[in-house]
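Worked Example 4.2. Read the sequence first, then its structure tokens.
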Amino acid sequence: MTSAYRWAILAVAMAAFIQTHLHRMAFAPLIPTFVDDLGLTYAATGTIQTAYFWTYTAAQIPIGILADRWGSRRVMLASMAVLVAGALAFAASGSYLESIGARMLVGLGAAAVWVPSMRLVMEWFPPHERGRVTGLLSAGGGAGGTLGLILVPWLATVWGWRWAYGASAVPALASLVLLALLLPAGRGGGAPGGAGPGSLRRVLATRAVWPLNLTVLLSYGGWFGFLTFLPAFLVTSLDVSRAQAGLLTSLITAGTIVSWPVAGFLSDRLGRRKPVFLVSQAASALACLVFAVGLPHLGVGGAAAAAVATGLLVGGMITPFTMIVELFPPALAGTAAGVTNAASFVGGMIVPIVLGRIVDLTGGFTAAYLLAGALQGLALLSALFVRETGAGRYTAPR
């Protein structure tokens, strides 16, 4: 567990996690193109975006069980290969249904990165490092989301959206090679007491899991809805270009590259996860309200400042994913992480479609963002009932 090679393990996991967020966010700055040039509604584009989450969500629990049984390496290699295929399929899609199917394939490929990586964190890192390591791993997601929001719309202006999105398969292919070369084959699965037929039952029977799951469902539903339509909101409210809107939105994800590791470090130092999460959850709810009411009056500079502040303040939203694995012994880490990650993406799967429908009905984004803020507020209320696990302590299930 104390081997210096653990940092190489973290680096390759981060490289893979970068790809999941790059593809999660790469479609968002293309939404104005699909609305204006292809004649789709916002509800339809929200459906394309959330098609990623349909397969991603459905796969989380099976992926957790497989990671506990077979090990992280095999699961992550297979997933990255599927992600590459999905990216190429989306770039080549010729109809609305084909684009949805391709996004579902991308989501399936992205599904098996976070959960196996969290199992690797539990196996290779000592308890007092797990908060900051989870934050560093999450920073890879922030980097990927930032790249998706900046590079894809910029390349789309030069090459067109198909070539721009197709190019995103190249770093995913490079990550596949890194996983094959650097991730050890002999660790990460098949341990005594690992996942068996009763592992999922044991996790679901733990009462402390359910307030945590409800919290992340509401929290991440509102968060993904917020990010999905922000580029389009910026285009319509501030009359900026699509590339500029992607750049402004990327200031949020760029901020999380800093705030996620910092939040993990603080939770390790405090010996408590929950206070860090509560502060960030409150900041996330406030950000939705600020953009809902204030964006048309902020101007480009004000919107940029609000985006930076949001990214720097929401880092603690990652701490529930450290808390869930601390509720169980390491042999159940994958299964437990899969359950809670699935809950978070149930929200991500539903909320953007609902928000897109509200935009279609109202002709603006204000009501949609007020709903996103309300969901974040409910998540904050639910978080008050989440059990504190403490930094690095295994808390016996109840």
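Now turn to a second chain, presented in exactly the same format:
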Amino acid sequence: MFICDSWQDYEVLDTGGGEKLERWKDVVLCRPDPQVIWPKANPALWEKADARYLRSSAGGGEWEFYRKLPERWVLELGALKFYVRPTGFKHTGLFPEQAANWEFMRERIKKAKKRPMILNLFAYTGGATVACAAAGAHVTHVDAAKGMTAWAKENRDLSGVPEERTRFIVEDVKAFVARELRRGNRYDGILMDPPSYGRGPGGEVWKLENELYGLAELCAQLLSDTPAFYLINGYTTGFAASVLGNILTRCMNGKGKVDAEELALPVTSGGVLPCGATARWTPDA
């Protein structure tokens, strides 16, 4: 397991009954989590919730607020700063467990002999973009959603990352990768966080089980002659860490080293909360 225990501003207080209770700095949110099939360890804690996301039987859902919250607020992790807010689709704009991957990438970037060129695909609100750029890399951030990309730029500026260390592209990921291959551009590090299902800005359809291996294979061709890492995240139910590991192993023709594990967060009331999976490739033998 890759367990992220480096946060001060974020904490999983308790889990149970299909939900997780989280502290986001001074705000306590209750959100659904279908993996949490055990009872709550400390039911009294849940009375501290400032808001709860309620799923609808028709799909989707909405927030129920128990006090007025700021429109958005800032979480800090060392020198990194991120805006968070309750969105209409349950998320807050940040996946705290990914800080374990940020630390891994930071260490690889620090070891590079030159400023690494990093490609962040399905880059969302730019947590990894900001972390890698703050560590000294140049990051190309690609996401099909204009609003998420704007949020990522705000996070970059909030963290004081120099603008020249980032390039933001609003485009379908597959189309961008294909074009970079034609242009002969190469990257020293690649990471991706693909959704289960999605549509690009031109209506392009993405289904993970149909598209992931082909995209991963193309991205392997984008790696430079001095690669630092290649990382794939997965949050789709049924895609175990070993699946992502097998994909990287095959795409890299068995060269280098692949570590594939669950991502997890510690829970204050006891245990850990599983938060998807990650496979990391490095050129180390």
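Notes for the reader: The helical segments are 99-111, 127-134, 146-158, 173-183, 208-221, 241-251. DSSP finds six helices and 17 strands in the chain.
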